[in-house]
Model the fold of this input.
Amino acid sequence: MVSGRSPAPATRRPSAPFGVFLLVAVLGTIVLAVVLRDPLSGRIREIACVVTGCTGTGMATAGWLVISLWLFYAVGMLLAFPRLGIPARIVAVLVGCALTVPVLTFTPGKRGRSLANIVDGVGAEAFKTGVRWGFASVALALVAALLVSRERSRSVRQAFGAGLVVVFSLAMLGVAVVRAEPVRMTAAQTVPEPTFTAAGDTLRRGAARDLAGCAGVLPDDTLLDGCLRTVRASWTTDDSDAVVHLAAVFFPGYPRVHDALRRIPDGLGQTGVDGPVLTRVEGSAHWLLLTSVGHADRRPIAAADQGHLRWAVEQVTHRFIGTYLDQPYEPEPENGIGPRTP
Done:
């Protein structure tokens, strides 16, 4: 007698070769995370800095996304994986491994391996805040799994659990953004004082402005490739003899500052500065500092004047970097560079 029922679909079972592939993928992911930890963590932070403009909010979001993107993918795969064929499963595992490597890279561990010594550079504090709250999203995902574990309906359990993961993760993003430390890179943050006193001299700031990027700072824009923004300002010393013009160009990492330093020819000055001036280019932290200094009346610069003119430059650059790092310090006279009146 022939039954009218169609046979039940066969359940896909992982083949032995696929199991071996899965084991190799897991071990390979761990090895890659260990080998690439330092260069990868720095590269991810720098890319995040470029994409977000290095704002505190943007860097916190980027750090959260590194962890949460993996979490969302993992939840999606838990729901979809049983229905995938072997080729699709292989692709899914490879994508999952690629997302897992950064997560393991930023995972704290033993032997002093904390986020404090994994991530450094501009925007690092905000990025680490995002990473921490991203890991909090993972912890809350486990809570969501416990909340829905007793639900009898599989479809309801899956929908409710996925919804909770999304809600919890977005809530953690909100906390990360609120707690993110701002990155000091605007004129209001780096040159906030209309006047300041250093080593007995008072310097009065003129106009200060921000530029998106660095177009027009030097005669050739390509010399500053990779810059994100520029702060331009000028100061006059209290005796009105020296005027210092500063163009502070912000880069996402010191290697790019170093590359720009190598590209800029000696003696090349910034645009928009007229009259006889002394120029200097130097790198400090994530800034390339372009300075020009001359007499307020634009008279020629005598050899005897160079020491106190360059001293005004030292005062400005030290004040700028000290404010940026929140570690104020003053220059010391040396090599003939010092106050006009000792």
